[in-house]
Amino acid sequence: MLKSSTCIAAALTALIATSAAAEGELNLYSSRHYDTDERLYSDFEAATGITINRIEGKADELIARMEAEGANSPADVMLTVDTSRLARAKEAGVLQAIDSAVLEERIPANLQDADNEWFGFSQRGRIIFYNKDKVANPPANYADLAKPEYEGLVCIRSSTNVYNQTLLASIITHEGADAATSWAEGIVANMARDPQGGDTDQLRGIVSGECDIAVSNTYYFARSIRKDVKGLSADRDMIGWVFPNQDGYGAHMNLSGGGVAAHAPNKENAILFLEYLASDQAQQYFSAGNDEFPAVEGVELAESVKALGDFKADEVNLSEVAKNLPEAQKIFNQVGWK
Question: Which of 250, 256, 74 is CA-nearest to residue 170?
Answer without folding.
Answer: 250
